[in-house]
Model the fold of this input.
Amino acid sequence: MDHRNDHILSPSQLNTLARDLLEGAFPLVLVEGEIGNLSRPGSGHLYFTLKDARAQVRCALFKPKSQWLNFAPREGLRVLARGRLTLYEARGDYQLILDSMEEAGEGALRRAFEELKARLQAEGLFDAAHKRPLPAHVRRLAVLTSASGAVIRDITSVLRRRFPLLDVELLPVPVQGDAAAAQIRAMLQRAIASARYDVVLLARGGGSLEDLWAFNDEALVRAIAASPVPVVSAIGHETDFTLADFAADLRAPTPSAAAELLVPDRANLLARLHGLHRQLQSQQGNALRQRAQRIDRAFLRLHALRPQARLDALARRGEQAQLRLANALQRRLEQERARLRHADAVLRAAHPRRRIDRLRERLQALRGRPQSLLARHLQHEALRLRGLARSLHAISPLATVARGYSILQREDGRVVRGIGDTHPGEALQARLHDGRLRLRVEGTESGS
Done:
């Protein structure tokens, strides 16, 4: 055979050409298969094969991207791999260099999840304006979850510890499987129709997207959004999200966290109750004291208004008036007595002899004063004495006698004022201005 005109390639050249052809024809492929021959060298890369019943292909997932996996690859696990087809020139083996990998079925479910989420969100089904507020105090709680799982035990344990007075009812439903979504929706609608519950709690433990898929059912999500009773979702772990979480009125990261969000802590509540009790006691004490004061004032007013009290008050006022009258009469009597004493003293002082005696006494007392002052005083007093003498003389009986009258007296000196004061034969005397006449009554005769 003559090969002089043929182009002769080395194995490495041939493999390089084949690699270029493969990479050019298959820029990016998705391959679903079962993991086999899994190898984890110290470099952190993953090497394995993807196989089905009739063939297999070598795969490599290098360290930076292998760290992004959200699951642990294992022998026999069915996965969906995304990567570029190439050829390993050293051995002449073609292989997939992977960019990402997820569990089989998860990718399709994830795309369906995102598409449904976007559509419902565009309808406004997840808007915050549609969320119902939770009641301040939950009295009866419905828990929709599996009756045999650890979730209900965790929830009841937290509720008993924090608030044992809460009435909790388990409404058992399957939380995984093809029929789970329909049964959860039916139980939710039954709980809403009963009007027994303040809040409905949807709860489930963690799992893959496929495990949690019942809570992404469109009919269930719409039933949650339309519920007149507030719905709380606690599905999976903190990093797990379902469409039921977006439609619920409150999303809790875990079932235990949901239980803590729904009820107050008993210790905090007791402390608050004690504080309110002390405040109420203080307010009641103040109110009682104020009312007691009002009652005392009202009693005093009633006591003052009762008839006997008014009679007593009038009696006291009468006694006080009598006392004031007696005091006034006593003062008036004392004043009259003083006036009488003063008048008597004046009358006594008006007698010339006594007046002269007092004047002499005063003259004797005034001898030590200057002569001029004494002369003026004596002159003044002499004038007053002459005036008094004239006054006394004007009213004196002797002055009357001097005008031609006489005073008829009996032997004992009593003045005869009328004929009834005498009797025949009685001796009398008539006092004239220059002497006395002795007379004897011969008879009486009345006339005008």
About this structure: The chain has four domains: 11-104, 109-264, 351-395, 399-440. Residues 325 and 331 are 10 Å apart (CA to CA). The longest strand covers residues 29-39.
